[in-house]
Amino acid sequence: MRKIIIAIDGYASTGKSSLAKLLSSHLNYTYINSGSMYRAITYYAIRNKLIPLTKKNINSLIGLLSKIQLDYKINKSTGFSDIYLNGSNLESEIKSLEVSNYVSSVAEIPKIRKHVVEIQKSFQHKGGLVMDGRDIGSVVFPNADLKLFLTASDHIRAKRRFDELINEGYEINYDDIFNNIISRDKKDTERKDSPLIIPKDAVVIDNSKMSIIDQLNFIIKLIKSRFNF
Ligand code: DC
User: Fold this and answer.
1) 10 - beta bridge partners?
2) Beta-bridge partner residues of 33
3) Is 107 in the pocket of ligand 1 (CB under 6 A)?
4) Ligand 1, atom 10: nearest CA belongs to which residue?
């Protein structure tokens, strides 16, 4: 059976990664969370005191990109890849609100995007790939076999993110999460370099009232009808 590339883009906290994980498990495909690369670089910038992103700090961060080794290794207990930065597992740290607050500013720096997009493109040869993000169907894999674009109401997205972080033990308040989601969407859609757009050939899924299983079933049906699986 032909292995396809599936690009999942969408607004912040629309459940892209949960859906991508479920879909990749179902198809026995590799899953890559592209946002984790921007988050890991942001974490590195915070740890190396390169925040705020002044011109000087941006240039330093760009100069240090060759020293930032990003890898993915399968986590045996979850079955999914965790991101590693210079050998350290960062899967949990990159979800903090501190990283979330700066990541869209890091992700709008063109030289950082170019570097990250090259790494992302290198996964193409894997065959059988689900990658989620903001520019996967438009820039990273413009020839992806299937492009999905997720959306949901602002409050539903904020509530989902809030619940997820509370479950992981973060002390947060709902309004901060809501504001972070809205400001990231604004930055992601308005940035000059590869902004978040709905690719012309994407299937848009508003999952405000859909469970993750509803979404999976919808996509599996779509794949079966399009690719004769
Ligand atoms: O998917 P996420 O929320 O973890 O992504 C974090 C940020 O990274 C998001 O606000 C925008 C940026 N991003 C991006 O610009 N392009 C991608 N392909 C993935 C993420």
Assistant:
1) 150
2) 132
3) yes
4) 104
Biggest alpha carbon distance in the chain?
53
Please report whether residue 146 resides in a domain: yes
Q: How many structural domains is the chain composed of?
A: 1
Domain CATH for 161: 3.40.50.300
How far does the centroid of ligand 1 lie from the alpha carbon of residue 26, in Å?
Answer: 24
Q: Which domain holds residue 78?
A: 5-223
Q: How does strand 81-85 pair with strand 70-74? A: antiparallel
- Cβ of 73: how many Cβ atoms within 10 Å? 11
Q: pLDDT by residue (tens digit) across 31-71? A: 999 999 999 999 999 999 999 999 999 999 999 999 999 99
Does the model's pTM come out above 0.90? yes
* 228, part of any domain: no
CA of 184 to the centre of ligand 1 (A): 9
